[in-house]
Specification:
Elements lengths: L3 E6 L4 E9 L5 E5 L4 E4 L5 H15 L5 H14 L1
Antiparallel strand pairs: 1-2, 2-3, 3-4
Length: about 80
Amino acid sequence: MDKTISAFCANEQADTQHSVDIDSIGEVVLTCGCGRFIKFPAGTDAATLKAGLEVHKASNEGQITREKIEAMQAALIASL
């Protein structure tokens, strides 16, 4: 069964659709289209997942992405 939910992607710096899966050891894995993922412990219920996603967004919103750092580095090097 494929299920997607909206969750904050630290890389995209936006709420994006994430696929929801349970891995082989029961962990809940939410994967964004960009490939980044968020993991929660086995046995995580819906209420705990929603609360965890709020904490995840608050902790990651406004953070600079690896791609932005690499672009800034490339721009700096190119301008030297």
